Amino acid sequence: MGILTRAREARLSALREASRSLPIGFVIAGVQKAGTTSLYSMLSKHPQVAGGPQKEIRFFIEPHDWSNPDYSTYRRPVKRRRPTIAGDATPAYLFFPGAMERIHRYDPDIRLMASFRDPLERAFSQWSMERSRHDHYPDLPEAIERWGDAELPSSYPADAKPSPMLQGSPFVRGLYGAQLERALRFFPRDQWLLVEFRQLLRHPDAVLDAATDLLELPRFETYPAMPHKMASPVTNPGDRPSTAAIERLVRRYADDLATFEHLSGLDLSGWPTKQAADGTLELAALRDRLCDKLGLRA
Q: How many CA atoms lie within 13 A of 242 on its CB side?
């Protein structure tokens, strides 16, 4: 039984035994490897937020009868008396085809959050995680060759498990502009909190203030410490990709980053991929910076 399955069973067991539960009232919808686990963990420390097992409920990317979905288990058990809202932190929602539309059908007024990280930093971190989990996962140069030009999927079989597509998505998940543009068709900007990863790391208390304001909750009286969970391995097998492969990815992201910056209002000037696209960071320096973090041999 995998980690996700064990967490799901723990949540459902607690739900069956609980005398009280809350429906999901907010969603952290993206993005993977950008601090969503830490953000959810801190928010769960708020006295009015119901936490519990299974951070990623994954409800809207899993097989269901989407013509008549059963939301009875899309809830969290409540052990304390004070919680008034419960959340789901599944960072694949923003990326997964159809997920945002399904969330809108569930609750068009739901509040949403997303944290974003430099797309190449995020992609390399996902690759490192997947490489550590799956023996068959390709080395980084092969992964770029195989998936570097993948398109943002517009559909996926409703009865299929999401894992195969998600595992092959390290680079296309960085097309934040296209994903946010799609999501804003269903939810207006004022229902969102959009966070830049570095700001979450440097100023977690300010991010928590913005999150509780969005949820119309009192701000924290005592701020929880920021946990650093789900870090990717810092030593990895295989060779570094070529500078040409990095250039290929930077060009892929350039126009999308401009769209994302416009839609989100976030300052992306500190993102290495943006700097490389603008010509202020050399591609070789970007490649070495990313690969040094992963411990890939030169």
A: 5
Residues sharing a CB contact under 8 Å with residue 4, sequence separation 6 or more, in sequence order? 54, 56, 58
- Whether 117 and 33 have beta carbons less than 8 Å apart is answered as yes
Q: What is the CA radius of gyration of the chain?
A: 19
Q: How far apart are the first and last CA of the chain?
A: 37
Range of the domain at 109: 3-294
Decide if 183 contacts 29 (C-beta within 8 A).
Answer: yes
Cα separation values, 189 from 14, 104, 200, Å? 34, 14, 19
Between strands 192-196 and 85-89, the pairing is: unpaired
Q: What whole-number distance in Å separates Cα of residue 24 and Cα of residue 17?
A: 18
Residue type, 269: S
Identify the bridge partners of residue 77 per DSSP, sorted by sequence position.
21
Please, which residues bridge with residue 87 across strands?
Answer: 26
Q: What is the mean pLDDT of residues 48-77?
A: 93
Helices then strands, counting H and E runs in the chain, come out as 12, 6
Domains in the chain, number: 1
Quick check: bond before 31 cis, omega within 30?
yes
Reported as a pLDDT band with limits 50, 70 and 90, residue 135 is: confident
Residue 143 Cα to chain centre, angstroms: 20
235 pLDDT more than 90: no
d(Cα 109, Cα 30) in Å, to the nearest integer? 18
Strand ranges inside the chain, DSSP E: 21-30, 49-50, 75-77, 85-89, 111-116, 192-196
Q: How many residues in total does the chain contain?
A: 298
Per-residue model confidence (pLDDT) at position 228: 75
